[in-house]
Amino acid sequence: KGELSNHTCTRFTCTKPSNTTGYKGTGKGTDKDKLPVKLTGQQSIDVKCADTYTLSGQKAQAKCSGNKSEPYTLSGCKRELCNSQPLNTNKKDSRGSIGIGETETFDCKDGYSEDGTNESQKISIQSKCLLNQQNKRNIGHKWEKNCKPNACKGGGDTWVLNKINNKDCSK
Questions:
Q1: pLDDT, greater one: 14 or 31
Q2: Residue 161 is inside which H or E element, if any?
Q3: What percent of the chain has pLDDT over 70?
């Protein structure tokens, strides 16, 4: 598509959109992560998802629709949410809104703690949601820290062995 001006056809130019959150370029050198300033005609180029985003489809793209004075569109990336929670923690309602790189405090389930030691006082953990990558592709998320099973559970002078870990249960 283009516009006829003085009997010369010129292509429409799509400028970079004001909101490019979640996307980065595929170039080389110091500007490798920068998105293009403009695209022309009905040009479409591959881009990458930013570090805290994952692919929502087959590929991430910047595309000029060819409409005059419209910015190009970005598609194919989504913000990765940490919709699970660390192992052995009690259910928490806020977990669906925690994104990659964010930290949250979780309470450990009964019989679990941050350090997995007898009668531990560390019954909560602060864990950061991390990007999980495989072959340089973002494939989801994982947690930096999980609650560990305590070796023994105290009850006065009586000790009960957790069969999860075969640790010495002496005080």
A1: 14
A2: strand 158-161
A3: 77
91-100, long-range: CB within 8 Å, 24+ apart, which pairs?
A: 98/129, 99/52, 99/129, 100/51, 100/52, 100/53, 100/129, 100/130, 100/131, 100/141
- DSSP labels for 28-41? -GGGTTPPPSEEET
The amino acid that residue 141 corresponds to is H
Supply angle C-alpha 86, 90, 94, rounded to 5: 75
Q: Which residues pair with 50 in a beta bridge?
A: none
Assess contact for 104 and 129: CB atoms under 8 A.
yes
Q: Phi and psi at residue 95, in whole multiples of 5°?
A: -60, -25
Non-local CB neighbours of 37 within 8 Å, separated by 6+ positions = 15, 16
Q: What is the pLDDT of residues 117-135, one digit of tens each?
A: 877 788 899 999 988 877 7
Length of the chain: 171
Each residue's pLDDT tens digit, 67-119 = 777 899 999 998 888 888 899 999 877 656 788 888 999 999 998 999 988 77
